[in-house]
Amino acid sequence: MAAAAAALEPWQAAAPRKRRRRRREVAAGDPAAEPEADREVVLGRIREAENDLLISDFWSSALETISKCLRKHLEQLKAPVDMLSEALGNLHLDSLPSESDLAPGSVPGETLVTGTCHLRCVCYGIGNFATCIIARNQLTFLLLFLEKCQIPRSHCWVYDPLFSHLEIAILNVLGVTVISENEEGKRSICGKPTIFYMIHCGTALYNNLLWSNWSVDALSKVIIIGNSFRGLEERFLTRILQKNYPYIAKILKGLEELEFPQTSQYMDIFNDTSIHWFPVQKLTQLSKDTWVFREEPYYQDVEDLEIIRNKTEDPSATDLTSS
After folding, report:
1. Is residue 258 part of a domain?
2. Which residues contact 234 (CB under 8 A, 6 or more apart)?
3. Model pTM score
4. Are strands 273-277 and 256-259 parallel, antiparallel or unpaired?
5. Which of 65, 90, 264, 282 has the fewest CB atoms found within 10 Å of its own CB?
6. Does residue 205 have a pLDDT over 80?
7. Around Cβ 63, how many Cβ atoms within 10 Å?
8. DSSP character string of 209-251
9. pLDDT given at position 11
10. Pseudo-torsion of CA 136, 142, 146, 148, nearest 10°?
């Protein structure tokens, strides 16, 4: 792994807590939402958000948390020592370049990465970043995260049913790939180490993602930045979690989780957020029956599912295998 950690029918990315739902309500047209703007205005707002994030205590603390997880994850993948040191060496605060050093449409702190990078990123549920400051901060974090981990933006796939035509155009300018179909979170990593960035998404999306990669080999190559799985365990009755979201219930003993730092400035943006990875040692200690069960989730009798199903006959996702 080189230099890493260096709609049709859309699903709805919402989470159980009312605090999280407020972001979606604002993004959907609440009077508190910001007015629609043109591309350059939104790009300017992204730059401003990045400037604020870079100098915040939250950013430096979040980098420390990410670094701890990525070091263990890369060691598990048996990355060469020099690559590991190089990747983790980039997890620090660089001085911000001047505006004159930036290419048109880029954001401060962007690093041009050359060569081959095998670590990829998939992002679900950012929301309307053109009009919602919470969504914009989450997008900004993603862009900085890609830079610090030396993941080329071309290796990042993004999807949210709320994206406007303007936002899709901006994401294209920023260099990430917008997924055109509703995957319901059912994306296989196809053997390639992948980070899933899923802030405040519905529980079913995490369950679907686990199902799509339900093996020791696949999960050992997955990192999830999103809702705390321990928090899900605390909020759901055990029988409900096991019945409605069995893959989450089964994997709780096979993961390690590090909570994101909490600061007043970014409390509503990254509350209940953790970074998760799946140690091989823990995965192999799970019973064999754990891996035999492979039934696809359908959620027929689940209330408040927080996901809109893909009703097409062939809900195939954008193919990453050729990338």
Report:
1. yes
2. none
3. 0.77
4. antiparallel
5. 264
6. yes
7. 18
8. HHHHT-SHHHHTTEEEEEE-HHHHHHHS-HHHHHHH-HHHHHH
9. 43
10. 90
pLDDT of residue 305: 74
What range defines the domain where residue 128 resides?
Answer: 18-91+115-292
| Confidence at residue 10, expressed as pLDDT on a 0 to 100 scale | 42
* Encoded tokens for 240: 């409900």
Contact 212, 297 (CB under 8 A): no
Residue 226 within a domain: yes
The residue written with tokens 């997924």 in the block is 179
Query: Residue 267 to residues 20, 52, 273: CA-CA distances in angstroms?
Result: 11, 15, 10
| Helix segments in 77-222, DSSP class H | 81-89, 133-148, 165-174, 203-212, 216-219
Q: How confident is the model over 151-175, as a mean pLDDT?
A: 94
Q: Has residue 22 been placed in a domain?
A: yes
pLDDT for residue 307 is more than 80: no
Domain count, the chain: 1
The whole-angstrom separation of Cα 16 and Cα 306 is 8
pLDDT tens track for 67-81 = 999 989 888 887 543
